[in-house]
Model the fold of this input.
Amino acid sequence: MPLLKQIEARRAFRALDAAPIRKEVLSRLTEAAHLAPSCSNNQPWRIITVTDPARLEALKAALTSGNYWAKKAPAIAAFVTSPDWDARLDGGRDYALFDLGMAAMAFQLQAVEEGLISHPIAGFNQATAKQALGIPETAILETLIILGFPGDPSGLSEKHLASEKSARVRKPLDDVAAFDAWNDRLIPL
Done:
């Protein structure tokens, strides 16, 4: 199926080109995220796509040292939610983060279609990033998605250079999925 090929093509590459991304392209990424399903159609995601040079530099100041490569990014998208913006069901089933994840995946798949690298990261100081973007304290800045066209990998560390060229590694499907009932092989080792 073509969609599986698109999903397979999405990789967290780091070799970025600093060339700007047209606003129409960035808008299509957000539109794809906006069309994601959500519990009770609450649409608890908020996406801030940053391209303004001063705001982008302030956001990049929040990145951890391991994300040095993201300093070349011409755009970064911040994915924000709050448990209060979505269904809060019994057993701790707060849907906001799940729904935010579905929106983020739709965003990334559209990025693949546009020929972009889209690399979600957790390596940032949340307080600094939230301050740079004016995000309220009550909201969760769950991830930043680094955006850019593929670029020259020569500035990457040896570790990151190796990961750019490596084959995709996934756990065996039987370790993460079962039919009809729970199987103890699903418990991570």
